[in-house]
Amino acid sequence: MLEISLKIVLVMISIALIMNTYSLVRGPSLPERILSLDTLYINSIGLILIYGIVQASSINFEAALLIAMLGFVSTAALCKYLLRGDIIE
Amino acid sequence: MLNLFWIPLLTLIGVFVSLSANRVSRTACAYATAALPAAALAIVISYAPSVLDGEHFVEQFEWIPAVGLELAFRLDGFALLFALLILGIGLLVILYARYYLSEQDNMPRFYAMLILFMTAMLGIVLSENLIQLWLFWELTSISSFLLISFWNHKSEARKGARMALTITGMGGLALFAGILLIGQVVGSFNLTDVLAQGDLIRGSELYPYILVLVLLGAFTKSAQFPFHFWLPHAMAAPTPVSAYLHSATMVKAGIFLMARLYPALAGTDMWFLIVTLTGLATLLVGAYMALFKHDLKGLLAYSTISHLGLITLLLGLNSKLAAVAATFHIINHATFKASLFMAAGIIDHETGSRDMRKLNGLWRYMPHTAMLAMVAALAMAGVPLLNGFLSKEMFFAETLQQGSLGALSWILPVLATVAGIFSVAYSLRFIHDVFFNGEPINLPKTPHEPPRYMKIPVEILVALCFVVGIAPGLVVAEILHSAATSLLQGETPYYSLAIWHGFNFPLLMSFIALLGGIVVYATRKQLFEFQAQFPERDAKAIFDQNIKRIVDAATRIYGTLENGSLQRYTMLFILSVALFTTVPMTKLINLEGARPLLPVDGISIVATIILVVSTLVTLIWHRKRMIALIAVSVVGLIVSLIFARFSAPDLALTQLSVEVVTVILLMLALFFLPQVTAKAASPSSVVRDLGLATLIGGVMATISYAMMTHPQTSIADFFIANSKTGGGGTNVVNVILVDFRGFDTFGEITVLGIAGLGIYKLIARMKLFMPSADLNGIPWSNDHHPMMLATVSRALLPLALLVSAYIFLRGHNLPGGGFIAGLVTAVALILQYIANGVDFMRERSKLNYQWLISVGLIIAGATGMGSWLFGYPFLSSWFDYFYLPGIGKFELASAMLFDLGVYLTVIGSTLLILGNLGALTTHARPEESK
Predict the structure, then answer these.
(1) What is the pTM assigned to this prediction?
(2) What's the whole-number mean pLDDT along residues B111-127?
């Protein structure tokens, strides 16, 4: 049961990743692209965790943790740039 | 007897003694300076009796044994002679300079440089190892540069010093090449071996190169024609410097080198031709030019050149007797020339002028000095009963003995006599123009005798001229014999030091020279008029012109290679990589190795597609920087996912944290850059770059494919096997970083720290253009720190610090470590800067990032050095397991302390760069439209 659902989830995440990339390429505005990048981060976290369950290994979970944290910083910085141009002031 | 090492060591310590004597009176400073050279002289003298008995001493210890280098000193007769001259005249110069230098001159600095120079000279003459000799040789060039430019407010002093350094420095390079070749032929750099292998060197194919290179070094140093022009310009130095450098030391170093290597290099026709002809040319040019110099020191400078030529000529004759004569003249020239320079300095000091057209009739004002100077000048002219006469007599005799030029051998004695005539003439001019010849004209000061003690050095030297001239057998016979014996490395031939040899040819030549000199001086008016017809050639201008030409050529080459185009550097770099990789790749026949390929899964295909697409997006929109930046972030994300997928969690973590820091850094920089880059590439360069990129991409893909499919053993197995047992950690990557390759890591964090400080310095006061609106011309928002972001970020900080502590602590056994933890902490703090601003952070965080970097480096370094306490090499690691109730069993390793150093350095450097780049704008933003 778990095996089947994991496979389905992996396929869904793959499709989501592809769609994020499409949105990133199409744009057309910068906020849309930043949003695509952020969603890519989120979906990557999912991908790593699902993959860890498939492999029955927790070795990459810290990578997911870091993406969650640093992805946020990256998105926040990009948004601050759109807002003010200067991200540290 | 103290070890030989003490001789140069004492004078070297003397440098610091002089430097620290800046609070005491000038006399005390001179005494303090003289103390250590005097002690060194005492050591030399304590060796003298045994050396004069024919012994020689060599002391050495290993320096860099791996390349056959050792620190070695030798004291034999020849070295003893030079050491006595250097230290003896050096002490006299110290005394003299005490009265010569004025109140404004920085006396401790002068003395320090003088003693440094003395150390270098002692190092040259006492060296047993040739490489070591060369090091001291270069030190004389540098310290003489400092001495010549002592009055650095004068343009001529700076120019003269630069010229001397350039010429002698070039010679030094040639000498180094020559020494290396000698080492290659002999197989040793030790003088003892080299001198014993003279036949081997002379028989070697390399002999012509060795000879020319070594002689280039010697000729430039000893101001031999055509390199003589630097010496007159070096006269811009204070007179004590000239008295020291141009009598007994600097210029004698070249002579010393030729004499020292005489047993190894001399004896061939090539040696005879080059050395004799150069010496002859120098002798004549110097003697002739000296007559026409109106400057007292200029006359002495050219006379020095001429006498150096004489000694070189003697060394070139390939006759043992000539070598003895050369040694004798080295002693004599040093004494009379040093005293003449000092006398010239006194005259300059007490009259304010050195121009012989103004200086006349000084006999009546300073009879004592005049007496001394006249005796010294007569010695220079070669008048009987003075020391110059004896060695000049020997010189004349030697030129008569020479038969190498066959039927034309008479040329040598004739030209020697001509040089003798001019030498008498300029000596006469020195005496007559300065001390007689009417009354002084327009002197700035009324001449009078100098202070009592200023004359003492001159008196001592002049007394030596006398004593040697009258009773040579008593005074110099022993040291001359011992010096000549060690110069020749064998028995010296019979020679007589008597004053009277009966009526013979040399005496006739001396007589002609004296008479001719008087005639030439009497007819000087006509000669001056004749000489005035030649256009004045300024060596300085020619030298400057040549230097400018060289610099221009270098600039041109540099300009074509390094034109500032980053694209071009990348192109050249990639092109050379392609060249070096494609050729070996064509020889690899089996592209695919024995390792089976992994099965392809759907996720990998998706990741690859995203990677390729985002790379293409970066390429296509590379001129729209913001889009390119977002696409690059995607590339980084996918790469870290790939690392995670193929079991490299450490790399994944590192990649992720570096990625974020990079994006932030780029955005900080983007603010100051144009939003859209101009289209610069021409169509042809696009085609070229595209082709090159495809080529290198294909090659790299092929290499990767071949490497990954071929099974191979690597060093990795060693690390995996020893990580737990040797380093106490199961995370091999981290153990490699902090233990196996800890020294590398230490170097890297040092570089990181330096880079951080360097960038900080570069941007600290930078003023840049700041756009007031974004890409589409919409003004920036007025909301500096959006409330939502600020609130969320503050809550995130403790969490992020917890995560980084966790990653740091587990690093030794599981993915993580100081570097990643440092980056995470840095990013967490950067987020506070972004969300709350620099002022907010400045109030709350008292962290000084420079301080953080140094603490990190100190911790890492101290951890490494800690292992010395236990008798292990630098950075040996230690670990053990402990038990604490409530926590359980845990491990402590010294590597963790080292990792802490890495952690702190990374935080300090990252924040120093990013924080300050951000702070650039804080107080200087353009006014917002409200």
Answers:
(1) 0.71
(2) 94
